[in-house]
Write a sequence for this structure.
């Protein structure tokens, strides 16, 4: 079936902080120069903010540059950080550590990043950006010369078998002079661009963390708006990268989350269970007693930093935000850098489009511009901290102190990363972990958790978690690693069930919260995450 | 024939509704809102009638805050021709909605009004019936199939024990049940076109309707959690428990 096509100057894939900042900056420049510029932004979530999940403590640096009068315009930055603490936990005790400079949050705000994005979308629409939530970019389109022509949205109404159902509506082609990919961590189209344009040649592999978050309404007596706490140590062992956050927002809400580095080795480890267990620590548990959990979700983050930044441009398009990987891991913040990259890319794209048809189709000066911003310097200085966790928590703490305080981020060497999917050890070499049963009060199971993420997918559609080789799950994953996907998936998508001829993998794609962990951690990279029908996935409120 | 369809902006069907901690209502801050699914079915039916040559113009009406414009735009992206927003920040209860819709009907003079049978937020299931009463028109509620002829409409309803078919004289009020149709996907170019379709805004005062609430919400609370089940050893124990503990036999 022939697809319809629409023409724009710029198409932006993804309505997170980077895509929205790029859209706003483009329209600001167009207004300043009094030129027409058609900017279209599509988002796979059912609305802007539906798929946004973050801690979040927002450093307003990029926002100050983009919309200096954000306060007057009602940006939802309502809770300035008032207290910072950094703690090391053992199974029974809690020790206060000196707060590293990257983790000092004076001047920052505790926010719901989803609500910040909803607000940014309003600003973008007021400037004339066409925003279409509920449409997933499913395919990159190319010109005959190999340059990117735009994207196509996914078909709607295909049946599970891939046939055209009664309400079938084919996808749309969105053509653009420049396409900005702002898909967030591990973008599914970005992954294909990496291969096609060899964007990762000569850089370190990207490495990731999985962040699992819950939003709680707590007893007002235990709530201290503006309080920020981070912990390291228990419940993960010293060889696993893991840590928590506790942020007290407005309205008696507390955001609690746990990040596990996806380079963990023990296939029995379950990031979800570690997160649940964390809440039972004697110094933490009381905060949640008498409260109620109101939301749940999970999302992978890019943790590789400076040495993992790929080539950012290619003919017809470029990468911004976490799909490129601008997160500052020691700061555990990426929204300000995502926005900055979007704004910088917008400037380069605008310049390129102004130059007209004679210019090349590649915004080559975007990386150069980026190198001259604070973003580059910021990421350069912290580049050795994540890889130093290769030496375990204590080695990393010692090294990081040295790197930060003595060399001030300018050590004359750079440490390197190895890919996360290669880190698992065979189950036979590892100890199973005995996680406590959920109590239904403070700790919960996966399904009741996913229920709170308001996740839904149209049932009768092709499975969006595709397997390159369907024999791999039982032949390799189950046999060698005891089926790690049952544990790393925070949404209970993967289950091994007894079937004819032994255990078989069942994929409950309807539960998927779009965190991308399976695409990252599957040992033989057999799972390929593709976009389901637009509008599917979680519907996070206030996350 | 002009068809009027009423659409309500309600909490999205995927969202787990949660009462506010003070019990004063349902938490709606930053929660995804969308068109009440039964109203989507009503819009779809109107479009199908129009496509079948049974309707000339489709007018969609919504009542509520300015954000209801989005709901109207969605209906217009599906295929409705124009929208009317009766804008108010106040709470509007079913009787007030019916009165407002009657005032709009008096202005627009449609031959058919289609509504969802109920909204999934308050589950009142009253508006369509009250509107028909106020207008003195025939009503066909819980429609599972409709067939329009020159001056009448046949409405098939799924009732206990079978199907009931009513013949109504036009003009009439029809409320849509779940199986009436499956709404279409909204296409991207149609969303763009819908932005340019006419949308008028009225107020309850302009329509001369008093919308003061007649009902008071006392408390919104979550249903009690289910207690876990128990296993019984034999029939005797089961009967004993049913008689002495559950007291049902």
């Amino acid at each position: 079936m022939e697809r319809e096509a629409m023409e724009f100057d710029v198409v932006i894939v993804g309505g997170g902080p980077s895509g929205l900042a790029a859209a706003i900056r483009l329209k600001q420049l167009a207004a300043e120069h009094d030129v027409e510029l058609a900017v279209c932004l599509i988002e796979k979530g059912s609305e802007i903010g539906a798929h946004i999940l973050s801690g979040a403590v927002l450093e307003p640096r990029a926002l100050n540059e983009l919309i200096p009068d954000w306060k007057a315009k009602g940006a939802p930055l309502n809770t300035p950080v008032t207290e910072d603490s950094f703690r090391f936990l053992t199974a029974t005790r809690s020790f206060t550590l000196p707060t590293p400079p990257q983790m000092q949050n004076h001047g920052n705000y505790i926010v719901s990043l989803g609500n910040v994005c909803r607000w940014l979308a309003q600003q973008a629409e007021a400037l004339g950006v066409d925003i279409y939530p509920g449409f997933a970019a499913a395919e990159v389109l190319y010109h005959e010369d190999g340059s990117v022509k735009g994207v196509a949205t996914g078909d709607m109404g295909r049946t599970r078998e891939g046939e055209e159902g009664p309400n079938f509506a084919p996808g749309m082609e969105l053509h653009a002079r420049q396409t900005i990919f702002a898909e967030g961590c591990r973008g599914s189209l970005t992954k294909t661009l990496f291969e096609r344009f060899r964007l990762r040649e000569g850089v370190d592999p990207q490495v990731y963390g999985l962040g699992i978050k819950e939003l709680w309404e707590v007893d007002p007596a235990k709530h201290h708006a503006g309080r920020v706490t981070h912990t390291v140590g228990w419940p993960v062992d010293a060889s696993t990268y893991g840590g928590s956050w506790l942020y007290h927002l407005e309205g008696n809400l507390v955001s609690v989350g746990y990040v596990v580095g996806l380079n963990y080795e023990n296939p029995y480890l379950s990031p979800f269970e570690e997160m649940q267990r964390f809440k039972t620590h004697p110094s933490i548990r009381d905060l949640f007693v008498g409260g109620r959990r109101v939301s749940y979700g999970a999302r992978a983050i890019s943790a590789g930093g400076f040495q993992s930044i790929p080539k950012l441009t290619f003919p017809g398009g470029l990468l911004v935000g976490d799909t490129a990987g601008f997160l500052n891991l020691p700061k555990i913040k990426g929204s300000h850098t995502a926005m900055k990259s979007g704004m910088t890319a917008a400037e380069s794209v605008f310049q390129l489009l102004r130059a007209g048809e004679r210019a090349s189709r590649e915004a080559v000066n975007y990386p150069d511009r980026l190198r001259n911003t604070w973003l580059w310097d910021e990421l350069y200085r912290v580049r050795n901290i994540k890889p130093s966790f290769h030496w375990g928590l204590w080695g990393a703490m010692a090294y990081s102190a040295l790197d930060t305080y003595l060399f001030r981020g300018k050590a004359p060497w750079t440490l390197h990363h190895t890919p996360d999917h290669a880190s698992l050890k065979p189950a036979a070499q590892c100890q199973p972990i005995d996680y406590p049963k959920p109590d239904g009060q403070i700790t919960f199971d996966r399904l009741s958790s996913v229920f709170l993420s308001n996740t839904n997918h149209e049932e009768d559609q092709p499975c969006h978690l595709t397997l390159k080789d369907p024999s791999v799950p039982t032949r390799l994953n189950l046999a060698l690693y005891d089926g790690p996907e049952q544990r790393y998936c925070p949404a209970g998508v993967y289950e091994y069930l007894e079937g004819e001829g032994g255990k078989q993998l069942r994929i409950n794609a309807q539960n998927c919260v779009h965190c991308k962990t399976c695409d990252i951690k599957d040992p033989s990279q057999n799972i390929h995450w593709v976009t389901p029908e637009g509008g599917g996935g979680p519907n996070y409120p206030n996350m | 024939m002009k068809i009027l369809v009423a659409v309500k902006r309600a909490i999205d069907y995927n969202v787990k509704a949660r009462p506010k901690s003070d019990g004063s209502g349902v938490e709606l801050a930053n929660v995804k809102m969308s068109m009440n699914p039964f109203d989507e079915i009503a819009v779809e039916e109107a479009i199908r009638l129009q496509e079948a040559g049974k309707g000339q113009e489709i007018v969609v009406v919504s009542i509520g805050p300015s954000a209801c414009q989005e709901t109207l735009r969605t209906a217009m992206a599906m295929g409705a021709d124009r929208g009317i927003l009766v804008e108010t920040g106040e709470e509007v209860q079913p009787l007030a909605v019916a009165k407002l819709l009657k005032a709009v009907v008096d202005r627009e003079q449609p031959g058919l009004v289609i509504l969802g049978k109920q909204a999934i937020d308050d589950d009142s299931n009253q508006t369509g019936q009250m509107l028909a009463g106020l207008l003195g028109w025939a009503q066909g509620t819980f429609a599972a199939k409709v067939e329009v002829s020159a001056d009448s409409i046949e409405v098939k309803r799924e009732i206990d024990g079978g199907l009931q078919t009513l013949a109504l004289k036009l003009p009439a009020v029809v409320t849509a049940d779940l199986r009436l149709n499956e709404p279409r996907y909204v296409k991207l170019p149609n969303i763009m076109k819908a932005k340019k379709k006419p949308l008028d805004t009225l107020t309850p005062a302009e329509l001369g309707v008093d919308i003061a609430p007649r009902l008071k919400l006392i408390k919104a609370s979550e249903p009690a959690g289910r207690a876990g089940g128990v296993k019984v050893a034999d029939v005797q124990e089961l009967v004993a428990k049913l008689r002495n503990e559950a007291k049902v036999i």
Notes: Chain B touches chain A through 22 residues (CB under 8 Å).
